[in-house]
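Annotators were shown the component list below and the corresponding predicted structure, then asked to write short factual statements about the assembly.
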Amino acid sequence: MNTVFAKSVPGRKGVWPREPQKTASDFLPKELLRDAGPRLPELGELDVVRHFTRLSNRNFGVDGNFYPLGSCTMKYNPKFMEEAAALPGFTRLHPLTAQLKGAGHFTQGALEVMFELERLLCEITGMAGYTLHPMAGAHGELTGAMIIAAYHKDKGNKKTKILCPDSAHGTNPASAAIAGFEVASLPSRDGIIDPGALKNALDENVAALMMTCPNTLGLFERNLPEIVAMAHDVDALIYYDGANLNAIMGWMRVGDVGFDVVHLNLHKTFGTPHGGGGPGSGPVGVCERLLDFLPISRVVKLEDGRFFLDYDHPKSIGYMAPFYGNFGVALKAYAYILRLGREGLIRASENAVLAANYLRKRLEEHLEIPFNRTCMHEFTASAVRQAENGVRAYDIAKALLDKGCHAPTIYFPQIVKECLMIEPTEPESLAVLDKFVDDLIEILHTAETDPEKVKSAPVSLPVTRLDETKAARDMKLTEDL
Amino acid sequence: MIPRDLFYTKTHEWAQIEGPEATLGITHFAQEQLGDLSYVELPEPGRTVAAGEEIGSVESVKAASELYSPVSGEVIAVNEELESAPEKVNQDPYGEGWMVRVKLFEEPRGLLSPDEYERITA
Amino acid sequence: MAPGQKQNPMPYVPHTEKQTQKMLERIGAGSVKDLFADIGPAMRPKSFNIPAGLSEMEVLSHMEGLAAKNKVDVVSFLGAGFYDHYIPAAVDALSGRGEFCTAYTPYQPEASQGTLQAVFEYQTAVCRLFGMDCANASSYDGGSAIFEAMMMAVRKTKRKKLIISEAVNPIYRIMVGSYTSNLGLELTTIPHQSGQTDLGRLRDAVDENTAGLVVQNPNFFGCVNDFTDLFAHARANGALNILSVYPVMQSVLKTPGAMRADIAVAEGQSLGLPLSFGGPYLGIMTCTKDLVRQLPGRIAGKTTDTRGRTGYVLTLQAREQHIRRQKATSNICSNQALCALKSLIHLCLLGPEGLKRTALLSMERAHFAAERLSALPGVSLLNQAVFGNEFALRLPLSAYEVIDKLTERGFVPGFPLGRYFTGLENHLLVACTEKHSKEDIGILAEMLGGLL
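Structure shown to annotators:
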């Protein structure tokens, strides 16, 4: 399919405002102006609509396809949330309006949304306070790591190291590094954090342990109380990566069990759409003793019921976002929580865990399941046996695409060979779950009888396998390179 | 399987010592792990390098890895062909895929023999 | 639903009781609660006081009530980096398609050619708009884009000093100060001169320890410059040049590429994204070809499939967090993909002529406003520099006071510069777009005149 630039017709009229009366040189000297106009496509509205509609037909999305991507929680995105976020009373609000006057009285509705969402998140996770400013999960991790650094600096501690389990998502160590920490990896045992290894690694220099529960293998961290106690004993803080929160809502609150800092992924657990890679939202929650370090501004409710933005926090880590985070995303998550309510959140986690275990049991004869015990909302399967015959997790993933199903997460976490990480999510029906298993079994069978067929998948999509090495070597990153 | 006249490191570099000079590259094992290379970053000629120091990197579609110098000395040449043809490292890691030539400051120390290296990669 | 068949009443959970039972049997568990046995009684929630769920109708009614508590039917002259330009209807109609907005990151490229080709086209469009070689698929916003650009300069030059003009958006300057607080870098801020970027002092501040220089065009006060000479000087000293720009105005202004900037970044909100109380926005990042390996985040590249057909993939991923972990160029994972798509669609709908008209109409209005307002007694422009669609006014009274009085009458006259600049408490930053009418400006002038 041609690019939109190839479809440009010089002189074609787009969606233009009326003609100006002046030219740029009426206001600015020639030296400050560009020589020639930008070579953007010249297209009519219908051309643009056709182009992007056709492009959309070359995409999978949750609306059209099952997406059992482990650690991504690709659950259905309810449409009423889009309507809520599109209300002009929210979309037309300039963020600086709230900073014009003491109590931001033109933005009381928006401030109330933020205040209420923070309160709900506190209650869902058992934390003392939240910031909605981080604009993605990784951004939340950075914020959390900076809060940890500020806490230790404030206490006069000289702690320069953060520990991450070897199963951690790559953003954990990457974020810790930007916050100025060195990162050490903790080996897992039986798929979970080994208290013995932790004991060896926990010295006076450790500022924090970043982990998640259930972990990236979908396993509950059984030694959690011991781990928390050990870390707190040396004044190391514990960070919770909230990517897997969908497993435990209403069943465990991370603040209750000792986590000091938490980030959530609203675009995972709270059903806001992934958008092809974003925008997300990664709110950060903290325990009581870390409240002072949260980024500014913070939403406060006055005695008369008005909301206002408070910037007076001298120990704050500063600004993590230009304003209040991805407000349009937070709005949707707020609506989602109101819709589901107490029972809905609990049942969401219950059914996420139910669906994952159902898939695990149906698949255990066909794929190796390392750590084959009750999993939470996701589990890992390994294609090592199939790989011995030349068909790898990569090939199985591509063959699933031909079945109209997006592949599970592959090759993560790195500690499982030929890993397929499967997370069905709770809105998927039994028919969808069964079809997934049946399709996968069929592919595994074909892997034995006709491996080349699996290795040449996908064949039913707009393109077959793409040459990634060629892309990296040619470096054609725009039409003009 | 691996050349017997070279020395090796734990980080999968090889060094060919010829009098006052050494030629460096990465091993067959390393290129196999990385997959088809898409890019090689090499040090500037004239730069001083110390044994164990990071002097460049290699990149494939699925991984990126640092290059560590096995020896101390001054970089006198780099394999310019690798800029446009990084695949030479995959095709001939000990020959046409050579990366850096160094004028030695001192006798190289702590390098592994072919047997010792083979034990690591077994 | 058949009589006697109990349905799980939870929204978005489809299983009937019978189906739930079937799954439990297959698992070999008695009840769903058995699956949570690992969470011992001591670890259960101390409380879980979330209100009961509401119907869709009730939630929307509640949200409408909250939206109504925001006052948006005002005539606003607020800008300061975030502008109320017209967004054609087709932007949301197209980007709202489920295939785009419910898609995941395109890690399985064969199933994501829509997203990937759109990213490739977006990269091309912003590079052409800014006159640069390469772009990434976005970062979060204009401020984090400046931070990432600064880190590119630090990594490339292996130096630790960064020089930033005070005329760069103060919100962004606070952000980069926060982000870099644990990195052992030295940030030097060069003060503005009555709202103008101080080219001389910026030039003098560059030395052999400078990793990068950050300036903005138009600057925060609306003034337009040519940074070509300053950039040449920085380059001669081995530093990288980072320019933060305003995408709509780039349709007429000399490009970062023409000025030989190394990295050009921008807030993309003015291209098809609603103001939306602060986000989601769009961090646009572009650079010269030789810096592309330092560019953080996702990048789409063109390639072919096994049958030789053109296709697109994420490329240069080896620099990213999921491979490099703590050695990655950045920690960024999710970006603002859907926002980048909206901006691309917006640019395609407007085209070069539409974008230029938007810039010119905005400038026309702003110059008309500047003329009318500075004619009022005691009111003057902060400086005589050439400007685009935004300018700073000096008032004979507190800007906050003026704003207080006029907002009550449905007009937000601008942004009080005293909020971020001491000594500028009597100064107002006024922005106009193609949405403002001459009538609006006339009324503003009258109201302001009435206060003096």
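Statements collected:
1. Chain A touches chain C through 205 residues (CB under 8 Å).
2. The first strand of chain A starts at residue 129 and ends at 131.
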